[in-house]
Amino acid sequence: MRIPVLSVDDDLHVHSLLEKVLADSAYSLRSARDPAEALKMAEQEAFTVVLVDLHFAGDGNTGFALLDRLRAFEPAPELIVLSSSSRFEDVRGAMRAGAGDYLAKGFGRGELLHALDRAVERRRWRRIEGAVRKTTKQNTDGKLVGRSAPMQALRSKIAKFAPADAPVLIMGETGTGKELVASLLHAQGRDPAAAFVPVNCAALPASTIDSFFFGHEKGAFTGAERARPGVFEEAEGGTLFLDEVNSLPLELQGRLLRVLQEKKIRRLGGNREFPVDFRLVCATNQSLEELVRKGQFREDLFFRISVLALEVPALRERISDLDELVAAMLPERQLSEGVQRLFRLHSWPGNVRELRNLLQAMDVLSQGSLNLDLEHLPESGLRSFSANEKEELSPMGDDLPGFVNEQESREREFLARAYRGAHGNVSRMARVLGVDRSHLHQKLVKLGVHQPKPPA
């Protein structure tokens, strides 16, 4: 069965183009000329994804209103904006209205198909997480779980660092909970009622990054119809959390350093400076010292943001916390002996986030069973285990190797399509998928999708 998609645009050429692009794909397309027609169709048929233009003749805000209306549907479709506008206000407004992706018109076939595939994956996980929330209590929000020595040391550092105003650098692998640590530093800090502003530096569009941080005045650039504060101002009196600070462009690193030194900012198009007062907390999943040696991160900024530093331990370094983590995430479930052995052998490259996602999927697949067994492992979980770890899956019989190979083939096909959509740019592909670049590069090479350049 093909996946139903609705396109909402008053340009017939767009509908014709989308029909050609999706003709031989996994998606079936229906079209609406205006928001009123789209809402009527959406009430009669459940669409998995809706492609929305932002501006319609006669009303420049109709597209935003349509996003709000569609987001209220139950179940809500995944929303992707297809627009000829690249204005900062439009991009930010669309994301705030619930759009999961934003494609500028002129996109390629691969780019659209990749955006649709990602939307379907987002919807799948949203449904899993929704089901889990109905049947389990998520006890790990807002607190650190685990009594191992590394976690005790982490709590001690948080308690010492929180009252200080000095910048803090949080180091740790992807999925270890660096944003949770940052929020705890804020909550235990000088003014927990003030703003906590998290920013994922790896996901910022290059074309709007200056306006995003510094804000802009009315008329500062084409489409700047009103003045907007940036995140430096939004974090006034509170905490600005820069996640994946290692992804900041060098040019912006210099401007960030100046803000930290002078405690003032100037909006784009402005002629006066604003004083700013915030506590800076940064996080990185890469060694900033190594990036400094490579010339990819400013040494003076590194010293400025790492006055206080702490490291969040990887899950494999505190495997003794596994039982407590499982009990906190799924308090009404028990792991079979086989699953427990497998979990203790696993290296957990995705850390606590990987564990949470795996348990959520197993809980749904178990259909309410008290015990979670090997048969409840999802396909994505099976792919993550090493060959040695899969020996623990012997109860599944001889069909396992063929099953795993089939999943690997699907994964290769998906990544190959995303790779083509990114025109072979692994960094861009990693940003789009929201994954660590180094891990993605290794996976692409392993699956034969990407051929690394030979050394000069």
What report would you give on this structure?
This protein is an alpha/beta fold and 456 residues long. 45% of the residues lie in helices and 13% in strands. It contains 20 helices and 14 strands. The chain has helices at 12-21, 35-44, 62-71, 88-96, 109-135, 149-161, 178-187, 209-214, 231-234, 250-262, 288-293, 299-305, 322-329, 337-345, 351-365, 379-384, 387-390, 400-421, 426-433, 437-446, and strands at residues 3-8, 27-32, 49-52, 78-83, 101-104, 168-171, 196-200, 239-243, 264-265, 274-275, 279-284, 308-311, 334-335, 371-372. Strands 2-1-3-4-5 form a 5-stranded parallel sheet, with helices on both faces. α3 links the parallel β3 and β4. α5 (109-135) packs across α15 (351-365) and α5 (109-135) crosses α18 (400-421). The model is unreliable at 131-141 and 395-407 (pLDDT under 50).
